[in-house]
Each structure stands twice: as C-alpha cells, then as structure tokens.
Write a structure and sequence with these properties.
The complex is a heterodimer of chains A (about 190) and B (about 425). Chain A is about 50% helix and about 10% strand. In chain B, helix 2 crosses helix 4. The chains are: A alpha+beta (about 190), B mainly beta (about 425). Chains A and B meet through helix 1, helix 3, helix 5 and strand 3 of A and strand 13 and strand 18 of B.
C-alpha cells in the first residue's frame, strides 16, 4: 500500500516536472475546458495496479488542462535539505555552504533527470518584490551548485515569493524558516 | 443579469435625448474637492413624490428611488447626506425651492423629484437645487423598467456628480483583489459599493497582480496555474484567456499602457530581473531597465510618458520613475526603508504607494516629480496595495490585521476611510477598474 502511494507520487511528480519544463520553453496560449481525451501516454497494463492507473489518468487530465496542483507538489519530500537566507538578502550564508556541498554531492552521486530550485521569502515586504527576491535566491543557489560541479542544464529556478511559507506564523522564527531555497528532485 | 442592467442603463441614458428643459440649466457649479479646506457637501435628498395617472393611490416607489440616490452619493465620500427626518418643507411644488425650508438644516444642495408612472415602467423627474442661491441646477426626466429602479437612481446620482464635480463619479466600477486561499486562490472582484462579489478567474492556484486595461476590456495577471509564475490576459467579456509571457524565471505582471495596447512586465529571462514592455498583439518585447538590482512593480503614467517602479538599487526598495523608453531614471522616495507598489494618480501629478513606518505598512502619496510625502493611513493595521479610482478622488487599499482583512476606500486626501468588504481570509493586491460600460 505504502509502496503504491510512493509510485503514485512518483508518476505525478514525473508528469508535473515535464509540464514545468514544457512551460519554460513554450509560448502556446492556453486552451481551457477540454478534459478526458486519449492523448499521448499509452497505458502499460502490467502489475502496477489500478491505483497507479488512476494516478496517471488524473495526471493526464491535468496535462490536458495544463494545470498543476501546487498543494500536491508541495507535499513531495525532497531528498536534500533546504538552505536559509537573511532578511531581504540572496547571499549564500556560511551555514548554507555546507548544506549545498552535501546537496551537490547527492546530485552527482544520484542520477537526477531534473532539479527544480525553488526560491522562497518570508511575508515581510510586498509580494511582487518578494517574487523577484525569491528568484534571486534560487539563482544564487543555482550558481553556487554549478561552481560545485552540478550540471547546470539539469537545474531550473522557480520563485514562489512569499506565497508558500513553511510556517504561516508571523514570528521571527517562522520568517527565518520561510526564507529558503528548496530542491525538487526528479529521478 | 449584468447584460440586462447595461441594457436598461442604455435605455435610461437614451432618455436624455428627451430631457425636459422646463427650466434653463444654470452655469455649472463645480466644487473644488481638492482644496485642503474641502468638507463633505451637505445635501438634502427628499423622498420623491408619487403621482400616478388616473385614480387610486399610487404605489410608493419615490422613497426607494430617493434612498438609492442617498446610498450612491454617501459612498462617494464627498457628500454629507442630511437626515430626512429633519426636513421641514411642506406645500412647495416639486420643481420649486423655498430656501428658508432648507437653509436652517445646513443644506448646500437639495434633490427633489416625483415618480409619475410606476407600472411596468418607472418615469421620474429629478430636480437639483442650489439652496443658498435658491436656484435650480437641473431638471431631468428618467425612465427605466420597473425592476431597474436602482439603475434609475444611479443615473440621477451620476447627473448630480456631473453637475457638482464635473465627472460621472466612480459608479459602475469594480475593485479586483486576491483573497488568499492557500495555494488555491483566485482573483475576485466586487462593486465599489460593496455589492456583487464574484470570482473572476478559475485557476485555483497562486494568483497575483491583477491589472485592468484602461479600456475595461482586459484583465492581466500572474498565475502559477502551470506550476510557475506566468502572465495571462483575460478578455472580461468572453472569458477567454491568453498566456502572454511564460519565459524562464519570473513573469510578473505590471500595468497596461494608457492605450491598453502594451503591458509592463518584470521578467528574469535575461538572468537578472528587469522591466519590459510587451505589445499585447504581436507579443514583441522591449527591455526598459538594465541594472543589477531588483526592479519590479512598474506603473504607467496616464499620459504614457513615464513609468514608476520599485528598485532596490540604492540598497533598499524605493520608488523611482523613468521615461517610457527607460531613460532618465529618477529616485522619488528618500524617507523610509521599504517603499513599494507605486500607482499613478489619474491626473498624473501624484504617486500613491505603501511605505514601512513603525514596523507597519501605510499608504502615502508623493508628487510624481518628487518632494515631500504625505501619509494617508496611520491605524494599527498593515495598509497596502493602493489603487486610485477613475475620478482620482478615492483610493482603494487592503487593510490587514492578523485574523481579519478589509478592502477599504478613502478619499484621496486620506479622509473618510470606509469598508467595502471584510473577511478572515488574507486579502492582497487591490486594483480599481476603469469605468465599465
């Protein structure tokens, strides 16, 4: 059962990641409303089970809608640790350097098809400014990992600004946690 | 419903072609509402008389018509609506004024009227008087279907605004905003009178930065619908959405140009985030800033010649302006460590923005050429995201406390703050629409 769930998550993450990267390159306009048509992925009717078929069907439906469930995405656990930042800063802190070295080590030892670096901010300041700040945090993190030998072409950046805090509280402690770069690793 | 409303409004407006000029309309009385000594104008609005053709007691529509005019004028922030219980007048004809009945109440203006037909159709006459001069300002006839009594009252209110402040007011406008619902939010809009709350988008995602096109046809915004920030333009009539920017990095929506043909954006596709102008038909881009700093939140001046934006190039977020081609960058704010969200007043002479003071955000205005800022809000909430009304007399903003958010409007000088909408959700990013047809 647990194994099934993991597989389901994997399939969703895989398809979502394809979507995320498709989004980076394409300029197609969005067609809304169409669902359910057979397209693309053909089902392998092996022993993986009905649950996984359902997950794939759901993901296909989402692909047709070109819409991504951010809540599901946020629940996927990362195999590597987040790093944190100072207020209104995108500089890599000394404590983050050690973490990034471990992460770089993981990325070189474990084959990943893609690494999405998410930049996040605390709720202080304006949402629009924080979007730019989050992007900058993700970019600085990416640069640091490139210098440590991680393949640049595997890494993409996404800013969530202040929109997806780990801890919604309005305290210094919560803010410190929320100022972070998070890594979504697709195997 | 909206369509019907518009149809009926057209019907009412077309009525103006048959205005009864029983009385010569006097030279217009424009009140200087920008004067620092301006006080809300005391106006008496009497219940309209009911006069039905034929015999029998007419139904009372007159008091409802008058009450709706009172409500419309009350939320403009520039009138003091006098209590009808204090009215003394008796026996004066509907198209005449006896100033001694009204001067003791402190009324500067008086609206009287009568409903002369009230079956399937309402026909009303409205008379606006200048009390101190004892003169009539206008006499007009209005017509609407029986279920559109509010629209008829709205037309009277618009005429009063035209006569006294020389524009049609901010009626028939909406305010867009985002009530946060975790990662499943959508842009909503509400009438500026607090009615008609509805979801505009159906993305259930992170939605940001709603921006109306000045022609009222389009709404641009940023959405994470596909997992990352991309910019969409929605045709408000058809509901069709078009993705106009989906480059690598951030795609953040700025303001439309005055001709509604270009959209300012913040993109990081060239590495660092910069401000660009996008032609919304050809989707061609023009880069306007080139600076290793955060440059966001661009806003076009009403004459299209300048752009205000936020940059941290000095070390902290501050308001800057530049020419529309990106030249002549000028820093505008110098006080405070965090100033953002600049929006140009419709007249083009001022910028409203939010600035941090005492650990909270408050709304300020500053001359667009630079100068000293005036703080408009000072309560214990975080007051953010200012947006001017089309008339320029009012500013909308969101006012947040830990477990309560309000969409507020105030007069542009900071007076008479009043609530449009209240919720426990976190409200962000208010944007006042142009006048919608």
């Amino acid at each position: 059962m647990k194994n099934d769930m993991t597989r389901k998550t994997l399939v969703v993450v895989l398809i979502l990641s394809v979507l995320v990267f498709a989004g980076c390159a394409s300029k197609k306009s969005v067609v809304t409303g169409d669902t359910g048509k057979d397209q693309g992925v053909t089902a392998e009717t092996d022993q993986r089970g009905a649950q996984e078929d359902q997950a794939r069907a759901d993901a296909e439906k989402e692909a047709l809608n070109q819409s991504v469930d951010l809540e599901k995405m946020a629940q996927v656990k990362s195999p590597v640790s987040d790093i944190n930042f100072d207020f209104d800063s995108s500089a890599i802190r000394p404590d983050a350097r050690a973490i990034l070295e471990r992460n770089a080590d993981y990325f070189t030892k474990n084959r990943a098809s893609a690494i999405v670096i998410e930049g996040h901010c605390d709720e202080q300041g304006t949402a629009e400014y924080n979007m730019a700040l989050g992007e900058r945090r993700a970019q600085e993190t990416k640069k640091y990992l490139v210098n440590l030998g991680v393949n640049e072409s595997l890494m993409k950046t996404v800013s969530f600004g202040e929109e997806n805090p780990l801890d919604p509280a309005s305290t210094e402690e919560a803010w410190a946690k929320n100022r972070r770069a998070h890594f979504v690793v697709n195997p | 419903m909206m369509k019907k409303f518009i149809l009926n409004l057209v019907l009412i407006l077309s009525c103006f072609a048959f205005i009864n000029f029983n009385h010569a309309v006097l030279a217009k009385v424009y009140v200087d509402i920008d004067s620092p000594t301006f006080r809300p104008m005391p106006i008496a609005i009497a219940d309209f008389n009911n006069r039905a053709p034929g015999t029998g007691k007419p139904a009372d529509r007159g008091s409802a018509v008058a009450e709706a005019v009172r409500q419309d004028l009350a939320i403009t922030g520039i009138f003091n609506i006098l209590n009808k219980k204090s009215f003394l007048e008796a026996g004066t004809a509907v198209d005449k004024i006896n100033p001694s009945d009204w001067l003791p109440l402190g009324a500067d203006y008086l609206l009287k009227g009568e409903v002369v037909r009230n079956d399937q159709e309402i026909v009303a006459h409205g008379y606006l008087f200048d009390v101190s001069r004892g003169e009539i300002i206008f006499a007009r006839k209005y017509r609407a279907t029986a279920d559109q009594s509010k629209a008829l009252s709205r037309a009277i209110a618009v005429d009063i605004m035209r006569a006294l402040v020389n524009d049609e007011g901010d009626f028939n406008t909406q305010i867009a905003f985002v009530p946060k619902n975790g990662l499943k939010s959508d842009i909503h809009s509400i009438g500026y009178d607090g009615t008609g709350l509805k979801a505009v988008t159906g993305h259930k995602s992170i939605l940001m930065a709603p921006r109306w096109s000045p022609d009222g046809r389009l709404l641009a915004f940023t959405s994470f619908k596909r997992g990352r920030p991309e910019i969409y333009i929605r045709n408000l009539k058809s509901g069709a959405e078009k993705k106009v920017a989906a480059f690598e990095g951030i795609n953040l929506c700025g303001a439309f140009s005055p001709d509604s043909r270009k959209l300012l954006l913040t993109l990081s596709r060239d590495g660092n985030n910069e401000i660009y102008s996008l032609d919304i038909d050809s989707l061609s881009l023009r880069r306007l800033t080139n600076n290793y700093a955060i440059d966001v939140s661009p806003s076009w001046s009403p004459d299209g010649k300048k752009i205000a934006f936020v940059s941290n190039r000095s070390g902290s977020p501050q308001i800057y302006t530049m020419a529309a081609d990106g030249s002549n960058v000028k820093r505008i704010t110098y006080e405070g460590g965090y100033n953002s969200s600049p929006v140009w007043s419709p007249r083009g002479d001022e910028l409203a923005y939010e600035g941090q003071v005492g650990g909270r955000y408050q709304i300020f205005v500053i001359p667009a050429e630079g100068g000293s800022a005036r703080q408009l809000t000072s309560d214990s909430a975080n007051n953010e995201s200012p947006s001017w009304s089309p008339s320029g007399r009012q500013i909308a903003y969101v006012s947040r406390r830990p477990s309560q958010s309000r969409l507020m409007i105030m007069n542009a000088n900071g007076s008479s703050p009043r609530q449009v909408y209240e919720t426990r959700q976190k409200l962000v990013m208010s944007a006042w629409s142009p006048r919608l047809k």
